[in-house]
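Technical annex B. To support the medicinal chemistry partners, we prepared a structural model of the target in complex with Protochlorophyllide, based solely on the information shown next.
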Amino acid sequence: NAPQLTAMCSTFNGLHTEKAASGCATNVQSSAFLGTRLAHMKQTSMLARANQAESGRFASYAPPRAQSVAAPAETKKSEASKKTSTQSTVIITGASSGLGLATAQALARTGEWHVIMACRDFLKAERAAKSAGMPKGSYTVMHLDLASLESVKQFVDNFRRSGRPLDVLVCNAAVYFPTEKQPRFSAEGIELSVATNHLGHFYLARLLLEDLQHKKTDTNRRLIIVGSITGNTNTLAGNIPPKANLGDLRGLAGGLNGVQSSAMIDGGEFDGAKAYKDSKVCNMLTMQEFHRRYHKQTGITFASLYPGCIATTGLFREHIPLFRTLFPPFQKYITKGYVSEEESGKRLAQVVSDPKMTKSGVYWSWNNDSNSFENQLSEEASDADKALKLWEISEKLLELD
Ligand code: NDP
Ligand code: PMR
């Protein structure tokens, strides 16, 4: 029952308490202000940095590095077009560890896929690919920092220069700050978990939608956005406080800047665990809105999934040590929700390439026998009006409308 769960959770977690939304007053003016700021930032990254300095905020903006271009061997167009005649191309964000790496590995091994590993740490990704035994030539590492819109744009330019026709985009990367008392911010001054997990991916997916519509190959194109059970309040896991809740999205409309508006989507007090779960709701709503807007017209398959509880990944790197010790055995032996990184990679690879998984608008899950099924999303995560509102506010923030 609910009180028992709350008690269990706070014992286990040691940190979280459910916080009441404070109803922080935010208005459209501040959002318009942020919008204007973003438009300027898009014109020049120099100005972006100047604006950051002005607002006195340190963000995770990574200046463009020499590494941010495709590996030299991959820039040769003739080589790229030779390979594309036999291989499909998939971009996986956050392929340097956990689910993303395991998926990249599973796909690369088939020989049928060329994996673009879209990662913020080039060296880490290269090393990860090598130690996962990914065959040379089966992947390209390209720099992408989802917490900087400038970086997202540069990534898209780099990808286009590679000459590869895009078949599948997997929006997988995420950050989770469960112990943080104060919000952190992206290059554009947006709360970092929503900026990375939702807005960076929203921007990337909007830009690459065009690339998914090329006529060069005759494959089933897919756009996959990784969701999670913890964003779904129709499950036990989704009822562990703090629960996801986007409210009326007033904080997002205000730009999540923590100055004129709250850093939380619902306008409430900052809570890192809730910010992550909210961002996952955004991921699942975004997939459905893409489906409603573009599936019929483009034939692209839009999908989301819960890959299982991969309790050993880097996602929990910022959690307290006790949590990191207890979480894997807890999930393995008590909830039985645990899956290995390898198994989770096979699952996501299925959503990328299985000819039986072409249905669009689906949130996939797997039972204990590892059989996939179409899962039911929570009321909020399947609310079409909220999905539309989220889409429109996100567009406005990114100046995409
Ligand atoms: P990991 O931390 O292992 O992987 C996350 C990846 O995202 C890393 O490669 C990380 O890069 C990358 N990343 C983080 N920030 C950025 C950024 N700004 N720009 C580009 N890449 C970035 O976690 P998981 O593998 O567990 O998570 C993968 C997905 O699975 C997430 O969407 C998560 O929500 C989802 N998920 C995970 C579950 C679990 O139990 N673990 C359960 C349900 C869903 P770097 O290596 O440089 O840190
Ligand atoms: Mg949860 C069937 C029960 C189940 C499942 C599948 C998960 C998945 N969890 C379950 C139950 C419980 N969890 C229970 C009963 C508790 C209270 C003891 C509990 C607690 C808990 C915490 C503190 N669980 C957590 C946390 C985290 O910090 C993780 C989180 O919410 O990250 C956002 C987490 C998770 N539990 C899961 C999954 C998949 C996660 C992690 C990641 C995610 O959604 O991406």
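Notes passed to the chemistry partners:
The first helix runs from residue 2 to 13.
The longest strand covers residues 113-119.
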